Every structure is written in C-alpha cells, then in structure tokens.
Batch of 2 targets.
Target 1
Amino acid sequence: MRYWATTIQQMAGLCHVFAIALHRAFGFKFLILTDKNEMYKGGVPAVHHVYAVDNQGNAYDFNGKHPASNITQQWLHIERGSWHRPGVVQVSTEKGLSKFVSDDWDKPLDSYTNQDVKNALDVAMVKLSDVLPKSK
C-alpha cells in the first residue's frame, strides 16, 4: 500500500507524462480534457486531464482502462452552472501534445524528461498490467 501511495503522489499532476509513456510504448494517441475558462499564453486552454487512447477507443490513465466515449461525454456534459467551460482535444503525436507543455507557467502542463517518461512507463506496466496490450 505504501508503494502505491508514494507512486500516486509522484504521478499527481503528471497525467500527461503517464500518457506519453503509453504513447511511446504502444503508439496510443492522446485525449486531452480542457477547460476554456482558464486560458494560457497563445490561447491554450487549461488542462483538466490527459489520457492515452488505443485504437479500440479505450482510454488509459493511472486509474485504469475506461471507454473514451464515456469520459468525453461526462466531461462535455458537466453540470450547467459549473464554472468549467469543458473542451476535448485529441492529438496523435507527442508534438501535438507539446503545445500544452512548458518549462514556465505560460502553459498548463509541466515539462518532462525522458527519465520521467521511463519512470511513468515502469509504473504503468505494473499498475495496468492486466489491461495493457502485450506488445506494440
């Protein structure tokens, strides 16, 4: 239990790194839940969460495998009156995701290193071992 508590703490705020790890390992695409109520430099919306999505429409994050269509519908239909202005962005490449990433505070997602991605993949391979494909 202590291992997972530490891992969750380390992965908090790094959902994009987790998704990048799965993208690099399995060729998954990205599903980005955005919030247009908060905008960053260059008109980039805030990011609520990033999932990795396989070709069968399954979305993966630290919590497991989910139908991507359910996630998208739930996010886009947030209770009226909420302060969120939800949006969904789908990108196929890490370069496409990079418009949300910065070393500074001018973009919603923090920069990362190859070691960060490797560490995230190590976590994913253990945490999601029962739901990930066996190979790329």
Note: The mean pLDDT is 89.
Target 2
Amino acid sequence: MLVEMHKEIGIFSLSVDKLAQRIRMVLDGGICLLALNAEGEAIGTIGLLGETAWYSDDHILSDTWIFVRKGKRSLRAFDMLVGAAHSIARDGGLPFVICLYSLKSHDRKARLFERYAKRIMTGYVFREAGGDFLAMEG
C-alpha cells in the first residue's frame, strides 16, 4: 500500500530498503493502524511515532504516513484513521501532528486537512517550506 502512496507523492525516488526500515521502525516502536472495508480488505493505513519536534523537547505523536487507496476514499477511511490517531494522542496527553508532503494534488489534500481541522475545534493547519501540517491538541 505504501508503494501506491509513493506514486501519488511525486517527490523523490523510492528506496525499497528505506521504506522497509521505516515500516519496521513503526512496527517495533510505534503504532500502525489499518482501515478495513466490509470484506476485510485493507484500504487505508496510518503509521504513528512518538517523537519530539526537531526544534523542541516537547513530545508529540506524529504520522509517518497516512494513505487511503484510490477508489476507496469515499469510505471515510481517512476520518477513521485520523480520529483513532487523535484519540491515541489525546489519551497519552500529546499533540497529534500530521504532515503533508506531496506535489500531486497538494491543494486538494491541504483542503482536506483544513476541513478536518475545522471539525475538531482544537486543530489548526500551519504551513512551512516543503509541506502543510495539521496539528491537534486536547
């Protein structure tokens, strides 16, 4: 599924070894959630790691990836994945941060982040060079 995601990102080449290392890092020390359809098919995933922002000692729960398969996106899998991740962060007393790095359909994806942030009053979107970020607290 993450190879499918890479095709949509439009940035950098794919290193299968680095992809496998990152997946292993999440499975060993983080949380990986799957969204399944009624038939039990995995249609979406989010990988989560507890970390600190590069400029702070404050701890956060951050996504390493979030992806919902094309053709399955109307099933609200994104909402389920983000909602579950936000609950995990909230239960742990951590802010939850989602990062959007993508050249393909970036504006559409950023609007999805903004709509999501408006639905949960503690969310906000901020922009930095290279990506948009959705941060949620409380």
Note: Residues 35 and 41 are 8 Å apart (CA to CA).
